[in-house]
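Thread: zinc ion complex, take 2
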Amino acid sequence: MENPTTSKVVLLACGSFNPITNMHLRMFELARDHLEDTGQYSVIKGIISPVGDAYKKKGLIEASHRVEMARLATESSEWITVDSWESQQSDWVETSKVIRHHYEELLAREHNRDDVDTIKYTKKRRIEENYIASSVHHRKRDGPQLMLLCGADVLESFGIPNLWKQEDIAEIVGRYGLVCVTRSGGDPHKFINQSDDLWKYRKNIHVVHEWVTNDISATHVRRALRRGRSVRYLLPESVVRYVQEHSLYSAESEQKNADVVLAPFQKYSDASTSG
Ligand SMILES: Nc1ncnc2c1ncn2[C@@H]1O[C@H](COP(=O)(O)OP(=O)(O)OP(=O)(O)O)[C@@H](O)[C@H]1O
Ligand SMILES: NC(=O)c1ccc[n+]([C@@H]2O[C@H](COP(=O)(O)O)[C@@H](O)[C@H]2O)c1
Ligand SMILES: [Zn+2]
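Output below.
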């Protein structure tokens, strides 16, 4: 029987998705199982938010392609969706602002079910049914929670100087919450233990252990593609087809932004030098 005190959760994953891989999709399934297994949460929706071109990461191809591939990849999911708001902003948007944007949308949707959404109608209807079912069964005072979903490498990147603002980390982890999926080579528990800031918010950080260690990375996929190797079964078939049809990922595309500083470094190094 369902626990009447469960909180509704929406999971938001920010990243390059250059291109989206099966592991990005698995990350959502693993996180939902983990959260629901605690008996405290009911996960009603997942959002993939590809970063905009202004992030300037090396090898980052146009957002329109990355968004379209993510759309194709999530077509068969009943609960994972893609949102292009972040990718359409002309400047790079800090993750804390992306979360705020989606949280405001979520609250607005709670009050107005007629708002426009990019997800197709059937998926929208299923998600809305979930909302309704959860609000009938679990009369929680507060609305749904939005949590950031990431791999352990993103959590560990919190420790890289000039990449994240301390107040943003505090807001993401303290106010919203983080779901972190283990990735080979990382040890999120150790990282949390060693950081006073993260330790303070440890109850808001849900570490999901991926037992089937999976080393799929978009870097590996791009490398295979520019060498003419197969990437079948690492990506959804529709994404493999899209990559082929548009001849994406070449030696040339990998050189994009090669001599440009990543947007957060640009932003925070400027801030520290300008006083
Ligand atoms: N194999 C994986 N295990 C756990 N998390 C993953 C895995 N692959 C990607 N992620 C997570 O998915 C999110 C988006 O990642 P991103 O788009 O950078 O993919 P990536 O495979 O790491 O790509 P790249 O190699 O270009 O960095 C991040 O939170 C990242 O940690
Ligand atoms: N300070 C910040 O808000 C900050 C810093 C670094 C990366 N990020 C985000 O984390 C994600 C990381 O993506 P990659 O792992 O593909 O680089 C991106 O969505 C990026 O915008 C945010
Ligand atoms: Zn990555």
